[in-house]
Amino acid sequence: MRWPRDLLSTLRGGPLPSGSLVERAVKGGLWAAGTNVGERLVLLGRFVVLATVLPPSEFGLLGIALLVVAIFERLSDLGLDAALVQRAEDDVDDYLDTALAMRAVRGAALLALGLAVAPLAADFFGDSRLTDVIRVLALSPFLFGLQNPGMVYLQKELDFRRKAVYRMTGAVVDTAVAVGYTFVVAPLLLNRDPTVWALVFGVVAGNLTRVLVSYVVHDYRPGLGVDVARARELVTYGKWMTGLNALVFLVTEGDDIFVGWALGSTAVGFYQMAYRFSNAPATEITHVVSDVVFPTYSKLQNDAARLREAYFRTLQLTTFVAFPVAVGVAAIAPTFVLTVFGPEWEPAIDVMRVLAVFGLLRSLGATTGPLFQAVGRPDLGTKVQFGKLVVLAALVVPLTDAYGLVGTALAVVGASVCFSEPVSAYLAVDIVDGRFRTLARVVGYPAVASALMAAVVVSLQAQVGVGVLGLAFLVASGVVTYAAVVLLFELRLGYDMRTVARTLAGGFGN
Question: Which of 181, 185, 257, 461 has the fewest CB atoms below 10 angstroms from its CB?
Fold first, then answer.
């Protein structure tokens, strides 16, 4: 049979995306978007299925354990991939063996740290079960340290086709193992009720699969050489990324840590469910933008006019999609939660509404962070995130004391509104030598259209009630309303979505 070999050859050695840089970026963006949607649907299916069997406390327990492991990972992130993508030369083979060695040493150190610190973390969060869960999940950074370093080329060359295989296989295996353990292994083979271990085994199996697939989708085969001079180069750039990633982690996950410490694992279950589904659409858009525009901006870093055009076009496309999605999630939150998860998850509704605003703000930040990195100023992102963390720290305790989980969500939104997004936007416009009037125009149109859409959806929601048909009707009504308002803006005010639409059509057509 030749087809397995043909498939392997295609994955490992297919032609790179063709066309101009803009066309390649659009094609890469479409592949990345499709992958994100597919991966999200797989994991959403896992959550919906397992939420019918596992209580919120089990999801919260996994969430806390992943947070502990993530603390070690993010605080020690060397920024190696970002350093390699940012380099102007296309061929970075001479750096890859060194990068792999640095990752492997870091992964082994994090595994040892996780094994040692697990009991202390369990005491901090007040749940002894966390000890074993954290120790098993500490395998994840160790596995990541063994991943094929050639994977960096998939982002550097905007080749998201093969990256799609890497991500989707991991998600599918994660889901299959978690669901299989829940409904087959635990009740039939072990004669016990499923617990958090269904989720834990799924995570580890998915990460192991990604490591194996990384050597299938890219044909680079690393050696054992380490170049001290090149390691120093990578660390020089990556040190700012280390600080940035640590601060971003504290900003984006610090609220979860605080909730777990102050309110317990059940509250974490509600909070993370609300966060995951309120931010899912905007987060996936954010990931697509970050993956695609960083290498694109890097190639344009010495062309001011094209860099400015790329920034505003990226912002226009991002806000056009992310704003209505985030606002729509906030509008339909009650119907969505009660229909999909049931009344047991009702405490997550108001939290989801507030965090949907945070998802909208994150989509704006996705256009600025990669810009700072591409022009060789990752320090700007680090400084912005530090300021945001200070504001968040000042708000989270009093607001949580006053409003519970909703207060925690309000603190997260407040830190973005009061500091990070206005400062990031100011710096980005200054870097590209743009105009703030252009920024306001690009952001204003989808903001107004999304607000009108939300008004229509909320007015209809009380009449349709809970159920799949009602949820589908609300989503359809929102889509139609938003499209109609945007069309009106296009015809009367010159919104100029036609240029973006033609770019997208070109990407689909190639």
Answer: 185
For residue 158, what are the CA distances in angstroms to 26, 162, 252, 391, 397? 9, 10, 27, 36, 42
CB 270, CB 347: distance < 8 Å: yes
Q: What is the DSSP string of 154-188?
A: HHHTT-HHHHHHHHHHHHHHHHHHHHHIIIIIIII
> Which two tokens mark 71?
């603390």
Neighbours of 463 (CB within 10 A): 8
Q: What is the mean pLDDT of residues 321-350?
A: 87
The sign one gets for the Cα dihedral 40, 45, 48, 54 is negative
pLDDT, tens only, 419-429: 988 999 899 88
Helix (H, G, I), strand (E, B) or coil at 146: coil
Nearest C-alpha neighbor of 118 from the set 78, 67, 77, 75 = 67
Q: State mean pLDDT over 325-354.
A: 88
Name the phi and psi angles at 451, rounded to 5: -65, -45
Whole-model pTM over 0.70: no
DSSP character at residue 90: S
Report the SS3 class of residue 485.
helix
pLDDT over 90 percentage in the chain: 22
Q: Three-state SS across 101-160?
A: HHHHHHHHHHHHHHHHHHHHHHHHHCCCCHHHHHHHHCHHHHHHCCCCHHHHHHHHCCCH
| Local structure of residue 287 (DSSP, 8 states) | H
Cα distance between residue 296 and residue 313, in whole Å: 12
What is the rounded distance in angstroms from the CA atom of residue 366 to the CA atom of residue 370?
Answer: 7
Domain boundaries, the chain: 17-241, 264-510
Report the pLDDT value the prediction gives residue 300, as an integer from 0 to 100: 66
